[in-house]
């Protein structure tokens, strides 16, 4: 036992180097291939197979294989927890299944060594340690991917916020409601990555106006599925602004809370712009009335 511990102590630096090498991988496939190269160097075998599953519902993906046995048998293996088996009488001398809480898993198989000898106790222990190195490296890889996604998401939110501020400034410039509505629809669709945006204006229960951006997506005017909407009332009319079908690289996906906040903000900006337009007209009318009264008073004095 002391001899095994002594030999393992010499492996510490190599294990650390292996972890660093695996952790720098840019993809799961690269990580898996590097791991197999490490196994080849340490166990003097060219017969290695490695499969990977992204989640419980997916199929095993072949990352590395020397085809030393029927790989279809590997794909049928069920897993619920970490399993490591050694069998000197089989073509597969060592077999390990390494699952993770996320549902992903690795499957590793070793064949016979180049010198035809069986795996000794030291090599069996070393194999289990390297499996732990693979596990830690994969978790580090996952955390790094999550960090990248978080940074991308934060940058995207900052861009959305800046665009929302610009939208508010642009909307406040328009005095004509038609141009105001067109701008709001365009920005609502753009900021939320929607297929289309639509505006419905009601007088009581009667629809008196409808607009959609882009104009060619008239097929979405009656959409009631994947959409969110925001409403406000002004001058006895109800205004309903909707965004329809959120697009992504994966296709159409559900809207999230940020999309609703953006839509509500744009709707509020439209409401404020309409009120400003109304107050502006009212101010002009009062000014004209004052002028008319002034002229009438002057005429009366004359």
Notes on the protein architecture:
The protein has helices spanning 2-10, 12-23, 28-43, 71-75, 121-173, 177-191, 257-301, and strands at 48-53, 61-65, 83-86, 94-99, 105-110, 194-203, 206-213, 227-234, 237-248, 251-253. It is of the alpha+beta class and 302 residues long. The strands form 2 sheets. The chain has a 5-stranded antiparallel sheet. Strands 6, 7, 8, 9 and 10 form a 5-stranded antiparallel sheet that branches. Helix 2 (12-23) runs parallel beside helix 5, helix 3 (28-43) runs antiparallel to helix 5 (121-173) and helix 5 packs parallel to helix 7. The mean pLDDT is 80.
Notable traits:
five-stranded antiparallel sheet, alpha+beta, 302 residues, 10 strands, 23% strand
Give a short synopsis of this structure:
By secondary structure, this protein is α+β, with helices and mostly antiparallel strands.
Question: What are the segments in which pLDDT stays under 50 over at least 5 consecutive residues?
Answer: none
Our estimate of the beta-strand percent is 15-25%
Q: What's the helix-strand series?
A: HHHEEHEEEHHEEEEEH
Instruction: Report on the biggest sheet.
Output: 5 strands, antiparallel
């Amino acid at each position: 036992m002391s001899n095994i511990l002594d030999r393992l102590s010499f492996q510490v630096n190599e294990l650390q180097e292996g972890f660093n090498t695996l952790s720098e991988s840019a993809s799961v496939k690269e990580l898996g291939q590097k791991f197999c190269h490490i196994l080849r160097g340490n166990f003097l075998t060219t017969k290695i197979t490695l499969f990977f599953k992204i989640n419980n519902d997916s199929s095993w993906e072949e990352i590395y294989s020397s085809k030393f046995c029927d790989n279809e048998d590997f794909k049928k293996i069920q897993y619920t927890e970490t399993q490591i088996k050694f069998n000197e009488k089989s073509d597969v001398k060592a077999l390990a299944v390494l699952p993770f809480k996320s549902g992903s898993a690795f499957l590793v198989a070793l064949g016979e060594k180049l010198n035809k000898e069986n795996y000794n106790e030291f090599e069996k222990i070393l194999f289990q340690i390297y499996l732990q190195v693979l596990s830690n490296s994969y978790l580090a890889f996952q955390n790094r991917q999550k960090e990248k996604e978080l940074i991308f998401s934060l940058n995207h939110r900052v861009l959305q916020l800046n665009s929302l501020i610009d939208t508010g400034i642009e909307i406040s410039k328009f005095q004509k409601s038609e141009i105001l509505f067109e701008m709001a629809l365009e920005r609502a669709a753009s900021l939320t990555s929607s297929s289309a945006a639509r505006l419905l204006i009601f007088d009581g229960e009667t629809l008196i106006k409808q607009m959609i951006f882009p104009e060619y997506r008239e097929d979405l005017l009656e959409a009631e599925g994947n959409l969110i909407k925001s409403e406000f009332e002004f001058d006895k009319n109800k205004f309903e602004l909707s965004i329809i079908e959120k697009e992504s690289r994966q296709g159409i996906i559900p809207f999230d809370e940020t999309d609703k906040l953006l839509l509500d903000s744009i709707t509020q900006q439209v409401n404020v712009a309409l009120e400003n337009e109304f107050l502006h007209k009212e101010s002009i009318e009062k000014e004209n009335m004052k002028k008319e009264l002034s002229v009438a008073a002057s005429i009366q004095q004359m």
